[in-house]
Amino acid sequence: MLVSTDAGIWIGAISTIAIWSFLVGDNPLWRVAESIFVALAAAWSAAYMWHNYIWPTFSTQIAVEGKYLLIIPVIIGLLIYTRYFPGVSWLARYPMSFWIGYSAGYILAFQPQPFVNQVTSSFIKFGGATTGETINNILLFIAIIGTLMYFFFTVKRDNPVMVIGSTFGRWTIMIALGAAFGSTALFRLSLLLGRIQYIFGDWLQIAGG
Hints:
Elements: H1 7-20, H2 28-62, H3 71-78, H4 93-110, H5 113-120, H6 131-150, H7 160-203
């Protein structure tokens, strides 16, 4: 038999085709698939949070271990749902402010490694082991200086140094963004090829694995 008899593969194939149908325009099949995906994602997230965080907090940490101070963050977290009530929707700003402030402070205080690495990685020697490495290091240094000059808005760009530096920095940013976009496009292409393999291989079974 050329077509798979696995119900799960059929569901995956039909869902994939339903999502692809958006390429020819908005249609009921696409809207149904989108609604199902969003509903499943929301339901899974709610169930995951309940079974792994909310219920253990009440049933174990508060009721058994006596950590009653946990009631305070629970109340703060519940305030986020006041955004659905116009009269008290302003209360939702407090948990959001607390969460953003705590996250930013925690990362800067205890997890500064990514930011420090970005700074220290720019401290390079001009002279490399080879001529190509030397040229690469010099270009990287110029690119860093040019990028910083592009974002240096407190000085008027009415002198040749600032004009040339900021222009070079702009081109550096454009090249970096282009490379990032190209990498993203290739990653999306690999996902597309995977789904095509799923349709013609796993479902229709007319292509080799």
